[in-house]
Every structure is written in C-alpha cells, then in structure tokens.
Design brief:
This protein has eight helices and ten strands. It is α/β, with parallel strands linked by helices. The protein has two domains: 96 residues, DNA primase DNAg catalytic core, N-terminal domain, CATH 3.90.980.10; 122 residues, Dna Topoisomerase Vi A Subunit, Chain: A, domain 2. The strands form two sheets. A five-stranded antiparallel sheet has the order 1-2-3-4-5. A five-stranded mixed sheet has the order 6-8-7-9-10, sandwiched between helices. A hairpin with a 5-residue loop joins strand 3 and strand 4. The longest helix has 13 residues. The radius of gyration is 20 Å and the shape is globular. The N and C termini lie far apart (88 Å).
Length: 253
C-alpha cells in the first residue's frame, strides 16, 4: 500500500486572513502602506514640521503608522513604534516599496535606534514621488537621494514635482517621466552621492534632458531650510535655476 503524502504546512495568514506577504517584498510594502493612515494631525506631520518641512495634505505618498514593527538587526529584539511611511512608486503610481522612519513617541524627532530609517521592496528605478501625477508628462522636475532633502525643496517650491531615490545607487538608476526636458539634481555637501549624481546626469543627457546640479550651502537642503531660512534658501536656489524655472517655481523674492 502507498502511504499518504503528508499535508503541506499551513500558510501563515496576515491580519485580514490572507496569506502573509514575504518580508521585504513589494506586496509587504503595499500591505503596510494600506494599514497606515494619512499624516494630517499625526506625529508624522509634527515630525516633519519640526524639520521645517510643510507639505500639502494631499501628498498621497506619505502616511503614518502608530505601531510599526522594528527588529534590531544585531540583538534580534523587536518592538513597535510610530513611523512615518513614505511610498516608493514607479512612474505609473504603483507602490513597489516604502521607506519607514521610526519616530520618538514623545515627539522628540526620530526614535532612538541604531537605524531609525529603513527601506524595503523594489527600489531601483523608483522613488518617493511628491507632486507627480502618474503617467503625466513632467517637463521640469528635481531628484535626489534623501526624502527630507527633496521634501525641503518641495516645501520651497510646492508646484515642482520631486523624487527621492533613497540612496546614491538608486538615484543613479531613477527612471525619469515622459516629456522631461530639465532635471535638477539635489546634491549634498559631502562626496558620498557623487557617483549617483554623475550617472543620473549622464543618463539624462543621453535622453536629451538637460541636467543641472543644485548645491546646498550647508550639509543638505534641509539644513539650509532650517538654519538659514526659506527666504535665504530661495535666493540661493534662484542663482542655480534656469531663469524661467526660477520665476515659475520659486517664491517671489
């Protein structure tokens, strides 16, 4: 007689009774984003305001999770903390990943963790887009590594679409939207992201896009915004923009 084959182990279920998504996958990112809430009135909005980042309530890429899972990669200890959730999307607006910034529950900035900011999912070629309508032509845009750098520029220029690629390597591979003619690439003061800027500039040039590098006065554009003020930053940026873009995007001086 043939012995019956053992039944496969039951598949773990998520919170809604669905099979659990693979950790770090785009599906896991989409589920976490769906479980979060708009940032208006939350600790995430207060955190950004504390960084002088003031974004419109309809920035759909940003959410808040009151109890986001965190695991220490050294000790293995786990805890849940509030977190700012930023969706990483492709040009069609599909969520492919996200970035989590864990926050101090008392409102004192980021959580006291070794790495309070982590990304997951498919990041290469995609970005945290602010002010971009999926599928729409984007004649002029800005891109850079860090979310807070790009959110600071978006605070200064609320009609300029921007993308944060989350790292220098991912910046090098960022996919640019159709119709792009000019690309402003936000640099940091250090040399760590130089490769990403050079590679993205090269790719833009090969596609017939004029790439212009924006340089901060201090460490990055969030430092400039917080320590020098918006009026000073606007004047500093105006000298780096094509004149017609300065008139269109920057606040009047």
């Amino acid at each position: 007689r043939f012995l019956p084959m053992p039944l496969p182990p039951p598949q773990p279920l998520g919170a809604q009774g669905q099979p659990a998504a693979k950790r770090g996958s785009p599906e896991a990112a989409r589920r976490l984003f769906a479980m979060s809430q708009p940032i208006a009135g939350t600790l995430a909005e207060r955190y950004l305001a504390g960084r002088d980042i003031l974004l419109s309530w309809h920035e759909h890429a940003l959410r808040f999770h009151p109890g986001c899972y965190y695991r220490d990669l050294v000790t293995g200890e786990t805890q849940t903390l509030p977190a700012l959730i930023a969706a990483v999307t492709n040009l069609n607006g599909q969520i492919t990943g996200l970035q989590r910034t864990w926050l101090d529950p008392s409102g004192q900035g980021k959580a006291q963790l070794a790495d309070p900011r982590r990304s997951l999912g498919d990041l290469l070629g995609n970005g945290i887009w602010l002010g971009h309508q999926p599928g729409a032509a984007v004649p002029v845009m800005a891109a850079g590594e860090g979310f807070e750098t790009m959110a600071s520029l978006r605070t200064m220029m609320p009609v300029l679409p921007v993308a944060a690629a989350t790292s220098a390597n991912h910046l090098a591979g960022l996919r640019l939207p159709p119709g792009c003619r000019r690309l402003y690439i936000a640099a940091d003061a250090d040399a760590a992201g130089r490769h990403g800027i050079e590679r993205l500039s090269q790719r833009a040039g090969e596609a017939g896009i004029l790439a212009l590098v924006l340089r901060p006065q201090l460490g990055d554009f969030n430092d400039d915004l917080r320590h020098l003020g918006p009026a000073h930053l606007a004047a500093w940026l105006s000298g780096q923009f094509v004149p017609e873009d300065a008139r269109l995007f920057l606040p009047p001086g």
